[in-house]
Amino acid sequence: MKFEDLRGILQYVPQFRERIFIIALDGAVMRLPNFGSLLQDIAVLQSLSIQVALVFGARLQIQELALTRGIKLSNDDGMGLTDQATLEVSADAISRLTSELVADLTALELRVAVPNALAVHPAGVIDGIDLEHTGRIERVDDRSLLAMLKEGLIPVLPPLGYDGRGVTLRLNSDAVALELAWALDASKIIYVSEEGLLDENQHRIAQLSVADAREMAKRKDASMDPSMASKLRHAALAAGDGVPRVHIVDGTQEEVLLAELFSNEGVGTMIHADDYQQIRKAKITDIPVLLSMMRQSVEDAALAPRTKEQIQKRIQDFFVLELDGNPVGTVAVHVYEMPDKAVVAELACLFVRRSHKNQGHGRRLVAFAEETAKQRGASTVFLLSTQASRFFEEKMGYVEVSPEALPTERREAYEKSGRNSRVLNKRV
Ligand SMILES: CC(C)(COP(=O)(O)OP(=O)(O)OC[C@H]1O[C@@H](n2cnc3c(N)ncnc32)[C@H](O)[C@@H]1OP(=O)(O)O)[C@@H](O)C(=O)NCCC(=O)NCCS
Fold this sequence. Notes:
Aminopeptidase; binds coenzyme A
């Protein structure tokens, strides 16, 4: 690992400290060869003062146990009808899994508790079918869970609950994670799944809005596994109502938890409420990050070099696109008065981090800059570009003009720079 990686990681630590993360494990994930290292990563989170509650599913283990006992399951994910035989197999498989998990966590010197913290009722009759031993979570005992978390204990919540009459009911683990997150005001749910969420070209889907996650969960074709659909549905419910981020990560990947949480790009899918990104005014404290972000493009001659002092002097002209609290792009708007008193604006310093390209951020920053230019009294926006002129022409409707059209002081600087940029403009 490089020192700069460490710096990148440490920037998240203050923002995560004392926060509650709900980690929901698929039963299949607990069978993977790398499961031990996943638990170690949970220990790392705890050591950073992140409070972790663990939820797990048991579909695979329930299926296996049913097979050895020759029992036909009425459902294996706690969402449909749970008949008596299915409940018995599920309860046995879940108890075994609970003690395995507690043993594994204890071996890592983590302190755990298996609390009876869910008040559950039978789900009742849905669409004309009595779901029998399937439960619905009514209430979460948040006070006792918060006390445990404060004490440094990891609550482990199996997908089972008990109603006031002492009846055992089967729950869906995605729903347990959701109810916990709501009750504990958690910052994140991280669903560790047996696979990641991919698009039709088998590329990872890095981010999804609540609306997109909801739509995707409704997909009925073979490309959408019911277990993934359930995660997407619960993720959309969570992110749509107060849980700032929900992540779905592929548990088969090494170090997936840490890589998802402590890198800008992540390795899984993040479902976010729609306002997770913002373009804001740059601050003096942003300058080092801006300079380091832009370094590569300056080296490639796509951006003109700028010094710290140059940015500082015109800091009110600079804007930062922030994702999840981290700067990933920038743009500047400089205003000039022409001899005929017309006001024009220069769009400059447009940059999007390599890891976030092709997600519409460039266009968003240009549109924002144009709006800012208008607000600052300009009717025309111009820019100088060496490598992105086609982007501006094809995506944003700019046209090439002669350098003669530049404001005098800008034209002098242009000639002096020798960069031979193309000059483009657009009426706004
Ligand atoms: C130019 C830049 C800001 C675009 O950012 P972005 O967030 O990737 O842009 P968007 O996601 O909004 O748009 C991507 C689209 O523009 C196209 N595009 C991006 N850069 C391009 C370029 N230099 N020339 C032509 N097309 C380009 C992409 O192919 C993509 O097209 P598609 O939607 O048809 O697939 C980014 O590539 C960058 O930071 N480049 C280095 C710095 C630079 O050149 N800045 C301009 C200084 S004037």
